[in-house]
């Protein structure tokens, strides 16, 4: 236990020096660090959001909506498929998580065409519809079965096979199609849902990154968390509310023609005509518009959007440009509908409904909605970044202002220094010379802890600082155990060297047991904790490891060097007698 | 042997006192419950700094006019620092609109208070998240205890394992009791503090148990009660010194570390006291009741202290 070769001493000193080297950058401002040569470590401890200020947002991707939208895109294809096969149907639409259609007798087909108003799945089925279904079912049971089988085939055609993955070695169908009487339903299969979730989350991450980059935040972290969640951490934000605004919007933009066959007021009272729907403006009070559902051009065809000012009124507007496909479609639509109004719809709200004065062929245009300078800028950011594949829901927010962060750092530093000073003095008071050995170990321990945190790129949080302070208090425990043990050994008339040797040897098992149990608690904490709490677990765990090294190896070396140099005849470990004494004078 | 203090003589008193504390804690918890923070209850917490001393009354009427349900407004440390807590706006939170209600609270409060105040901290925890946090927090404490149980069972005999776990359960339950009694906010960081208490208390217990095991091999004929007393006394000086250094560091943190972590540090300070107490007065006496194996020959005979 007490034999240290030169090389061992060199090794221990090298570890301490490395700790110092990695810890040192934290003592200098970034300005000086930038001038250092590349081979020197320059990484500082990363401060958590609670110390440097910033926003932590946990978002959940609304996968149900993404699934629903996929099914809605199938409605048109299903309709043309059924017509192509001359299969009679009614009430084609999406209900809940399924695409649903009722199959009917052939002769009634023509009549049913007019009932297509129900096909969006949202309008109420009229009593008239119900009666007809009953008739049909009773009249032609046999023919129906063939029709249902044919309909199953039609819907089956729509299903896109899901590519084989590690988890599903055999390719699977996207749709699970079931028939119950004359009702045929198509649902997304488990694998298809999973695939859609995965792609919706990764696309969302990409779009969130683009949106946040536009805000000019430094180093945001955007990570997937669990199956359908995304964690966004944006440090040092001036306006966290704006970040939430930007992330909370799906930004699905589309251009539609306005349906002038009926006034919006009439449509509000009754039922909007087939293929049209009622949407409202984003202003107060809300103005209703009757909009054709068919999308003229969608936001996917945008290549650029920039905030600008309208020349005459000097009001903020957003200029946009389409890609080739978009420009062609937009040109054609505007050419055919000069004099008609069209609507620009963002996330289900009409933001502008200008009248087409002349065909717009150049592929660029202007949205002059009800904008402020900031909202025009935000809309440009959203349009450039693209629409989210599914709505995002902010389910957790934790924002710390820069003022509180700075206060916390200051308070933590003061607590560290005072706690450290108190423990250093107490150890000297209790153990004299040996207390100073322990003090040296404690200081080196802190340097190693800081160096390890910098090297690992671990995040220091306010609870993390608490972890450091706790380490200061608990790190001396190993030394206390050793010193107490040596003290006991000296009382059995051992020579100082033998007593120190036995003390270290016998204390080792206890030190390991005691620290491993604390380490278990720290690891569990790391596993289940989030953010700041995790920072506490990290400092606690690293502190345990470094304190075992410094207490068991470093102080032993100091002890050995002192014993060799001074060769004392007797050892007196404790300066004051604390607690009960055993075997005193034995 | 010169045993200074016969701890085991007071074991019945200590066990009775601890039993009373446990029953009291369970009663408090089931009758009063805990003052859950928004981590576990969901809702909104806003920590603001005002220019000059805050006028709590004015803030209360300003925010009260929004009709947000249960709103708590209280001074937080400094006179110009105020903590506003608003209850969960919707119970279900199933749709995006319902979850957005909590975020709207922040916007509304910002509108009412204007730009004059500094927003030091804003936390919004939705109903989905708070439920998960309760589950993972409970799991963390149970998981840590289970792992530790296994570790001690491997390193010692099962009697030690049971003794250590009962002492830990005691510490955790009594800590929850104190939080219930004093109506201190119980949030995610308190779970971290409890896990630290688990680690610390175990530390103490393991040191004593280590010595008990060593003495069991050394003094094969000594009555168990005497042997336990000897072990506690031999390690007592270490137990006290480590408690003192830990308390010194924690006291510095409690006084200077700021309001945000004061509850967290309080839990740990409490834990040092209760953990030290339980190691000496519960973990050690329990071995007497559980009975330990005395004959270690044949097994591990090369172990330390022989």
Give a description of the structure.
With 586 residues, chain A is an alpha+beta fold. Chain A has three domains: 6-53 and 402-566, Multidrug efflux transporter AcrB transmembrane fold; 64-188, no CATH class; 250-385, Gyrase A, domain 2, CATH 3.30.1360.200. In chain A, 52% of the residues lie in helices and 18% in strands. Chain A has helices at 6-23, 30-33, 49-52, 63-84, 109-113, 127-139, 141-158, 190-215, 240-248, 264-269, 324-336, 373-385, 402-431, 433-456, 462-490, 496-528, 531-566; strands at residues 46-47, 54-61, 88-95, 98-104, 175-180, 183-188, 221-225, 229-235, 253-257, 276-281, 288-292, 297-298, 302-309, 316-322, 342-346, 349-352, 364-367, 392-400, 459-460. In chain A, the strands form five sheets. Chain A has a six-stranded mixed β-sheet with strand order 11-10-16-15-9-12. In chain A, a hairpin with a 6-residue loop joins β13 (302-309) and β14. In chain A, α1 crosses α14 (433-456), α13 (402-431) runs parallel beside α15 (462-490) and α15 (462-490) packs antiparallel against α16. Chain A is elongated. Chain B has 306 residues and is of the alpha+beta class. In chain B, the strands form two sheets. A four-stranded antiparallel β-sheet of chain B has the order 3-4-2-5. The interface between A and B is large, with 83 and 84 residues.
């Amino acid at each position: 236990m007490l034999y240290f070769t030169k090389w061992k001493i060199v090794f221990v000193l090298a570890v301490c020096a490395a700790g110092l080297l990695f810890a040192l950058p934290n003592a200098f401002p970034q300005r000086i660090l930038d001038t250092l040569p590349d081979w020197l470590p320059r990484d500082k401890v990363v401060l958590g959001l609670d110390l440097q200020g910033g926003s932590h947002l946990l978002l959940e991707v609304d996968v149900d909506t993404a699934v629903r939208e996929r099914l809605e895109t199938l409605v048109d294809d299903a309709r043309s498929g059924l017509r192509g096969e001359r299969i009679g149907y009614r009430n084609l639409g999406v209900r809940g998580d399924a695409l649903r259609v009722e199959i009917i007798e052939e002769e009634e087909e023509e009549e049913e065409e007019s009932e297509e108003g129900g096909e969006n799945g949202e309008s109420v089925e009229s009593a008239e519809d119900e009666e007809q279904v009953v008739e049909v079912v009773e009249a032609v049971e046999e023919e129906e079965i063939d029709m249902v089988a044919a309909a199953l085939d039609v819907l089956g055609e729509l299903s896109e096979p899901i590519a084989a993955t590690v988890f599903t070695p055999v390719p699977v169908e996207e749709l699970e199609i079931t028939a119950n009487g004359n009702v045929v339903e198509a649902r997304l299969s488990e694998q298809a849902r999973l695939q859609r979730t995965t792609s919706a989350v990764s696309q969302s991450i990409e779009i969130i990154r683009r949106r946040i980059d536009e805000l000019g935040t430094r180093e945001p972290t955007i990570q997937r968390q669990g199956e359908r969640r995304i964690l966004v951490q944006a440090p040092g934000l001036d306006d966290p509310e704006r970040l939430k605004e930007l992330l909370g919007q799906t930004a699905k933009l589309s251009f539609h023609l306005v349906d002038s066959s009926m006034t919006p007021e009439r449509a509000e009272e009754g039922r909007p005509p087939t293929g049209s729907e009622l949407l409202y403006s984003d202003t107060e009070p809300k103005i209703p518009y009757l909009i054709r559902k068919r999308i003229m051009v969608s936001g996917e065809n945008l290549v650029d959007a920039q905030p600008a000012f309208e020349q005459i009124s000097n009001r903020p507007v957003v200029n946009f440009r389409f890609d080739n496909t978009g420009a062609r479609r937009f040109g054609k639509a505007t050419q055919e509908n000069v004099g008609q109004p069209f609507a620009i719809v963002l996330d289900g709200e009409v933001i502008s409904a200008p009248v087409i004065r002349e065909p717009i062929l150049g592929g660029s245009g202007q949205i002059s909605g009800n904008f402020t300078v900031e909202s025009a800028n935000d809309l440009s950011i959203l349009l450039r970044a693209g629409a989210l594949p599914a709505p995002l829901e902010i389910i957790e927010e934790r924002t710390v202002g820069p003022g509180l962060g700075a206060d916390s750092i200051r308070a933590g530093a003061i607590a560290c220094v005072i706690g450290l000073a108190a423990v250093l003095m107490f150890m000297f008071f209790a153990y004299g010379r040996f207390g100073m050995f322990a003090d040296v170990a404690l200081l080196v321990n802190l340097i190693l802890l800081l160096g390890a945190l910098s090297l690992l790129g671990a995040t220091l949080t306010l609870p993390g600082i608490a972890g450091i302070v706790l380490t200061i208090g608990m790190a001396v425990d190993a030394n206390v155990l050793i010193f107490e043990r040596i003290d006991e050994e000296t009382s059995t008339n051992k020579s100082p060297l033998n007593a120190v040797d036995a003390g270290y040897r016998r204390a080792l098992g206890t030190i390991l047991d005691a620290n491993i149990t604390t380490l278990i608690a720290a690891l569990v904490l790391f596993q289940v904790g989030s953010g700041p709490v995790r920072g506490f677990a990290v400092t606690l765990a690293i502190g345990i490891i470094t304190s075992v090294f410094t207490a068991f190896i470093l102080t032993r070396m100091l002890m050995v060097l002192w014993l060799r140099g001074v060769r004392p005849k007797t050892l007196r470990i404790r300066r004051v007698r604390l607690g009960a004494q055993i075997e005193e004078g034995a | 042997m010169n045993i200074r203090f016969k701890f085991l003589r007071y074991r019945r008193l200590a066990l009775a006192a601890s039993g009373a504390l446990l029953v009291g804690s369970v009663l408090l918890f089931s009758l009063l419950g805990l003052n859950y923070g928004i981590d576990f209850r969901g809702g909104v917490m806003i920590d603001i700094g005002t220019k000059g001393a805050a006028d709590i009354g004015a803030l209360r009427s300003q925010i009260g006019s929004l009709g947000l349900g249960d709103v708590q407004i209280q001074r937080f440390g400094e006179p110009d620092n105020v903590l506003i807590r608003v209850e969960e706006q919707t119970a279900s939170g199933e749709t995006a609109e319902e979850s957005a209600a909590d975020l709207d609270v922040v916007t509304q409060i910002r509108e009412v208070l204007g730009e004059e105040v500094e927003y030091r901290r804003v936390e919004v925890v939705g109903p989905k998240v708070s439920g998960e946090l309760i589950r993972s927090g409970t799991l963390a404490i149970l998981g840590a205890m289970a792992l530790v149980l296994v570790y001690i069972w491997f390193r010692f005999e099962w009697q030690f394992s049971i003794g250590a776990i009962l002492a830990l359960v005691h510490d955790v339950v009594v800590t929850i009791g104190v939080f219930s009694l004093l109506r201190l906010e119980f949030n995610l960081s308190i779970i971290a503090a409890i896990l630290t208490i688990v680690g610390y208390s175990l530390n103490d217990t393991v040191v004593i148990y280590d010595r008990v095991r060593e003495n069991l091999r050394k003094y094969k004929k000594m009555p168990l009660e005497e042997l336990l007393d000897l072990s506690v006394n031999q390690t007592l000086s270490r137990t006290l010194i480590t408690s003192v250094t830990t308390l010194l560091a924690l006291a510095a943190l409690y006084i200077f570390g700021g309001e945000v972590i004061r509850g967290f540090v309080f839990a740990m300070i409490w834990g040092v006291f209760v953990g030290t107490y339980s190691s000496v007065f519960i973990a050690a006496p329990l071995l007497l009741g559980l009975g330990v194996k005395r004959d270690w020959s044949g097994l591990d005979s090369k172990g330390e202290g022989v």
